[in-house]
Design brief:
about 150 residues; Ribosomal Protein L13p, Chain: A; two-stranded antiparallel ribbon; single chain; 5 strands
């Protein structure tokens, strides 16, 4: 079964954990508008943490950390899966993340989070500062390709 998720104004970490649970349950998950997902916190500290992650490790051997919003979200979900086990790797293959709303998922007959009665925190629920994944990726050096 396929689940379509709109990430607009959703808290990225909460959404990633929900997606990880769905993947481990055997669903195929397509997440779109991921550049509009949010991370709560102060702007300077969030950007500093992402820059620190990118600078960590060897440029040839890794660990490699992405700078585009779709890749950042995939990496978040991968961190919540047992990726070094076959179950986690197979679940991760069932995840597709898109920037914007692509044409290929327009005619897919799928369920949404509301159909599954799953609620994820959104920007309206927060009382603090936040940044979108788009703002973060531009701040850490991504060229805008979306």
């Amino acid at each position: 079964m396929i689940v379509l998720i709109d990430a607009k104004d959703k808290v990225a970490g909460r959404l990633a954990s929900t997606v990880a649970k769905l993947l481990l349950s055997g669903y195929k998950v397509y997440v779109y508008n991921v550049e509009k997902a949010i991370i709560s916190g102060k702007r300077e500290s969030i950007i500093e943490e992402f820059l620190r992650r990118r600078a960590r490790g060897d440029p040839y051997k890794g660990p490699f950390y992405p700078k585009y919003p779709d890749e950042i979200f995939r990496r978040m979900v991968r961190g919540m899966l047992p990726y070094k086990k076959e179950k986690g790797r197979n679940a991760f293959k069932n995840l597709k993340v898109f920037i914007g709303f692509p044409e290929e998922i327009k005619n897919i007959n799928a369920k949404s989070l509301e159909d599954l009665k799953i609620k994820v925190k959104s920007a309206e629920d927060l009382r603090c500062e936040y940044l979108t994944l788009e703002e973060i990726s531009l701040a850490i050096g991504a060229k805008k390709r979306w």
